[in-house]
Each structure stands twice: as structure tokens, then as C-alpha cells.
């Protein structure tokens, strides 16, 4: 576990995984008016007094206030001896103040976690006015597999405001996302990109739509030609939105978005007043939604124009508690998986007239199964995360043994609180991202296998500051921290290795050196 995000600094008294910068760059309003400006904050829009927040700059003070060090000279103009020794002593002291943080280490009085920029290719933070429990990336026309900085990304999120009428669906354009400045590099080692980044600040543009009630979950039909978004409201309704005109307005300043585009295309009322969280689009525009009453409904698109939908009144039934997550199969168009607070995972086929599940794993976890993710590259692998903090990987080819029992291919009990999000990397079939209510976002490579000698070296290397060995799985690549109660994560579908996460404290978007 050589690629660690955190170091310990005993010279500060505030605990923070990612320092809270003080600079915000925000642009854009929902009525089409755009103005790129560098401000402290920017109004997002409800009644003119709500703020989305903005990007945070960790380097403003460092750039604006450079310390000049002058050496003393004696009367003959010769530098005073002893200065270099004192500087070397200071370096030794500073090195002692910083050490690598291992999970399980207890911070001493006055110690804090500081971000290690050498572990990131890119790291940006964005504050928010209202927490967003859920977000999703929006497909763009900028190309797939792009790696050059600075990056531009589009995302959509839904708010959890203090009053129902204040909630919004927020479309965001994150641009000018430059690589992370590595302060640990020598000046001679810094390239042109590092130097140029000093004066480049990220830009946030937003377009908003009013949303009645808080947004429990939001998902996008990933189509650059006909993008649709669906929101699960805490009112029990599921709303479908056409977001094409809002995306077009980002590229054409001054564009007026008509009021008709500010309203949902369609509202799914099949769930009555029962709210839910589970939701997933198929590639051809079919939407599955699961509620807290254990019911799952299918909404079908009439045609490819996005103009009409049909919501089924007959539910898929089989779960005895809240349906927490749903995933369409990446291989079979009629098959989907679901997980539930009843501790089970079920596999369904929409062609089945009885609307009953085809396969079942009762007791998949010892507590609520919160999230699942179907591997898009190795399509027989399904990952699940639970309320007790563990996550498992299931091999669909070996769903059950001769006795009918289902056994996971892998199980990891790393997170100390509930797993809140899990997602396979779209470009690497063995890499998985997991977030938890313990404020950790972890990256795993399940292809890592150590022989006995390597395993022994790995165990010997995982020693904390107290001299005690830490039980750190060899498959654990990276730990990202600094957010308060992480709710959801996603890999960017077009930028390899790029991740974003939303938490009560706001958004992080980052690319690590591990993936």
C-alpha cells in the first residue's frame, strides 16, 4: 500500500483530510445568462438567495504571499556560517513532523491529516449550499479516452434543501480542471504544465430546474444525442427530464431556455406516495425504479424521440423490505438485479409474466444490502455493499453450489460504517471503487494476488506509528479522504481513471496515480 493519500502534520490543530481552500470560481445561471467571473460565491438561484457553492482553491494564499528568505552577511560580505546547518536542522524537524498515515493510526494531540498531492494527478473540491445525496455524469461530445489536461466534465445532481420548494435539479459544467500542483517537486523537476497551473482556476457553470421535494437519487440515460435524466423524489414521484436544451445553453451564452424545458417530460406515479432510492436506465431508454415498500416498476419509452413513456402498474414483487438499488445487466437486455434491506440480492427477467424473480441470494449479507454494481467488462461479476461495512463480489457463473448455496468470490470487511456506493471501473475490469459512511473512498484491484513471500513482505510493511501491524488487504490500492459522509461516487465514462464523489460537505473530483 505504497500509494497513500494522507500524511500527518503535527504543526496544525485542525483535522481535515482535504484542506478547505478559500477561492471560488463560478459561472452561469438557469435563465441562460452567463458570466465567467472570479468571486467568493455565486447565486444558484431559488428566490435569488440560494447558492450552489463553488470550487475551492487550496493554493491561493501560497501563491499570493511568497516568503522571501534573506541570508545574513558579515562585514566582509561573506555569508554567515551556521545558516545552512540551521536550515538542515529545520528540514530534519519538518520530516519528523510528517509521516505516512496508515488506517488505524490514532492522531496525537495537534496532529492533522494533510492531503499528499503526489498521490493525485488531479484533485479539486467544490462546496455546496445544499447537500446532494446523488449525482451522475452526463455524456458529452468531447471524445472518449481523453487524457490531456485541463479537463471538462458535465454532471447533474439533485439537492436536499431545508424546504421542499427550494430543491433543484442542477446541471453543472466543470471546466478548466487542471492537474494538481505538486509542491513536493523541485523547481527543476516541474514541467510547463505545473507552472502554468499556478494561474489557472477551475470554472463552474450551472443550469437549474425547480424540483418539488428532495432528490433521493438521480440517473442519466447516457446518450449524447438524446440525454434524459430521472429523479427519485421523496414525495414518491419519479420525474423524467429532457436536459438537451440546458446542455446546449452551456455552449451558447445568452441562450434563453423556454419554460417548457424547465418542467418534467413525464412523471411516474406508479409508486403512489411511497418514496424510494433504487433506479437505473437501460441503454434503450427503459427505466426501473424500486421503492421502500419492496416494489419495482418498469417505465418504457414509446419511441426514441423522448416524447412519451408508459409506466407499468404491475410491480415486480419478491423483496420483503425496501429496494435499495437496481442494475440492468450489461449483457442481457431483459435481465436486471436488485438488492434490498431484506439482506437479499435477486435476479429478474422483465419477460416473466409472473413478475417474480428468477434467482435469489437470501442472506447475501448480514445486514441491509445498500448498493450493487454490475461489471461492464467482466459481465459475470456483480459487486454488493452492505450496511455493516463489508462488500462482496459474486461470480454469476458460480451463482450456487450443488447444495443451492451462494458463496461470494471475494469478501472484504474494510469500511467501518455502511457502504454507501460501489462501482466498477469502466476501463479496468478488476478495479472497483467503494465509499462508506466512515468518510473513506477506497480503490481496489481484485486482480492482485501475492505469493507467500510477497504476502509476508506486505504484512511487515503495514506497520503503524505505534509499531503495531495493520491488517491492510493487498488488493487495497488507495484511500481517499477529506469529505464528510460520502453518499455516492461515479467513474467518468469518457476520462479513464477520473472519479467524482458527493458528500454532505460537497463534491470532490479527482484522478489518482493508482488507476
Question: Any overview of this molecule?
Answer:
With 515 residues, the chain is mainly beta. It is 8% helix and 35% strand. It has helices at residues 60-64, 83-97, 192-196, 244-251, 452-461; strands at residues 6-9, 24-27, 37-39, 55-56, 98-100, 112-115, 120-126, 134-137, 151-158, 168-177, 203-210, 215-221, 228-233, 238-242, 266-268, 276-281, 287-291, 296-301, 309-311, 323-328, 335-340, 345-349, 359-361, 369-374, 381-386, 391-395, 410-412, 419-424, 431-436, 441-445, 476-480, 486-491, 498-503, 506-512. The strands form 8 sheets. The chain has a 6-stranded mixed beta sheet. It has a 5-stranded antiparallel beta sheet with strand order 4-7-34-33-32, with no helix packed on it. Strands 12-13-14-15 form a 4-stranded antiparallel beta sheet, with no helix packed on it. The protein is globular and about 65 Å long.
Itemize the secondary structure elements and their pairings:
Blueprint: E1 6-9, E2 24-27, E3 37-39, E4 55-56, H1 60-64, H2 83-97, E5 98-100, E6 112-115, E7 120-126, E8 134-137, E9 151-158, E10 168-177, H3 192-196, E11 203-210, E12 215-221, E13 228-233, E14 238-242, H4 244-251, E15 266-268, E16 276-281, E17 287-291, E18 296-301, E19 309-311, E20 323-328, E21 335-340, E22 345-349, E23 359-361, E24 369-374, E25 381-386, E26 391-395, E27 410-412, E28 419-424, E29 431-436, E30 441-445, H5 452-461, E31 476-480, E32 486-491, E33 498-503, E34 506-512
Parallel strand pairs: 2-11
Antiparallel strand pairs: 1-5, 1-6, 2-3, 4-7, 7-34, 8-9, 9-10, 10-11, 12-13, 13-14, 14-15, 16-17, 17-18, 18-19, 20-21, 21-22, 22-23, 24-25, 25-26, 26-27, 28-29, 29-30, 30-31, 32-33, 33-34
Amino acid at each position: 500500500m505504497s500509494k497513500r493519500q494522507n500524511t500527518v502534520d503535527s504543526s496544525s490543530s485542525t483535522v481535515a483530510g482535504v484542506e478547505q481552500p478559500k477561492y471560488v470560481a463560478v459561472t452561469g445561471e438557469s435563465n441562460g445568462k452567463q458570466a465567467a467571473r472570479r468571486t467568493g460565491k455565486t447565486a444558484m438561484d431559488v428566490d435569488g438567495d440560494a447558492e450552489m457553492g463553488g470550487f475551492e482553491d487550496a493554493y491561493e494564499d501560497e501563491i499570493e504571499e511568497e516568503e522571501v528568505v534573506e541570508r545574513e552577511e558579515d562585514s566582509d560580505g561573506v555569508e554567515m556560517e551556521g545558516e545552512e546547518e540551521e536550515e538542515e536542522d529545520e528540514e530534519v524537524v519538518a520530516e519528523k513532523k510528517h509521516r505516512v498515515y496508515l488506517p488505524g493510526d490514532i492522531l496525537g494531540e495537534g496532529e492533522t491529516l494533510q492531503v499528499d498531492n503526489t498521490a493525485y494527478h488531479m484533485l479539486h473540491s467544490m462546496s455546496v449550499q445544499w447537500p446532494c445525496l446523488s449525482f451522475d455524469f452526463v455524456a458529452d461530445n468531447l471524445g472518449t479516452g481523453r487524457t490531456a489536461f485541463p479537463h471538462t466534465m458535465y454532471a447533474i445532481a439533485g439537492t436536499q434543501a431545508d424546504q421542499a420548494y427550494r430543491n433543484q435539479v442542477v446541471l453543472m459544467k466543470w471546466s478548466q480542471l487542471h492537474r494538481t500542483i505538486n509542491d513536493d517537486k523541485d523547481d527543476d523537476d516541474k514541467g510547463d504544465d505545473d507552472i502554468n497551473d499556478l494561474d489557472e482556476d477551475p470554472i463552474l457553470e450551472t443550469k437549474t430546474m425547480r424540483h418539488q421535494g428532495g432528490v433521493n437519487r438521480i440517473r442519466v440515460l447516457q446518450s449524447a444525442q438524446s440525454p434524459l435524466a430521472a429523479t427519485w423524489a421523496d414525495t414518491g414521484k419519479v420525474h423524467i427530464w429532457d436536459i438537451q436544451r440546458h446542455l446546449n445553453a452551456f455552449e451558447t451564452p445568452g441562450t434563453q431556455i423556454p419554460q417548457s424545458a424547465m418542467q418534467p417530460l413525464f412523471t411516474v406515479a406508479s409508486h403512489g406516495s411511497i418514496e424510494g432510492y433504487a433506479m437505473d436506465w437501460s441503454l434503450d431508454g427503459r427505466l426501473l425504479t424500486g421503492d421502500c415498500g419492496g416494489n419495482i416498476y418498469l417505465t418504457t419509452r414509446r419511441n426514441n424521440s423522448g416524447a412519451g413513456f408508459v409506466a407499468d402498474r404491475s410491480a415486480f414483487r419478491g423483496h420483503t423490505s425496501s429496494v435499495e438499488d437496481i442494475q440492468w445487466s450489461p449483457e442481457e437486455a431483459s435481465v436486471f438485479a436488485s438488492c434490498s434491506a431484506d439482506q437479499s440480492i435477486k435476479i429478474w427477467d422483465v419477460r416473466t409474466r409472473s413478475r417474480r424473480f428468477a434467482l435469489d441470494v437470501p442472506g447475501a449479507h448480514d445486514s441491509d444490502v445498500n448498493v450493487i454494481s454490475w461489471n461492464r467488462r467482466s459481465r459475470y461479476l456483480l459487486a454488493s455493499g452492505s450496511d455493516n461495512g463489508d462488500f462482496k463480489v459474486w461470480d454469476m457463473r458460480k451463482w450456487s453450489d450443488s447444495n443451492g448455496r451462494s458463496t461470494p468470490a471475494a469478501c472484504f470487511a474494510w469500511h467501518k460504517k455502511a457502504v454507501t456506493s460501489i462501482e466498477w471501473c469502466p476501463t479496468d475490469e478488476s478495479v472497483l471503487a467503494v465509499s462508506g459512511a466512515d468518510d473513506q473512498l477506497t480503490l481496489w484491484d481484485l486482480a492482485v494476488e501475492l505469493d507467500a513471500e510477497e504476502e509476508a513482505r506486505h504484512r511487515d510493511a503495514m506497520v503503524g506509528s505505534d509499531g503495531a501491524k495493520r491488517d491492510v488487504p493487498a488488493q487495497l490500492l488507495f484511500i481517499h479522504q477529506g469529505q464528510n459522509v460520502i453518499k455516492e461516487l461515479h467513474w467518468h465514462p469518457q476520462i479513464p481513471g477520473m472519479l467524482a464523489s458527493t458528500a454532505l460537505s460537497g463534491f470532490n473530483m479527482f484522478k489518482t496515480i493508482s488507476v
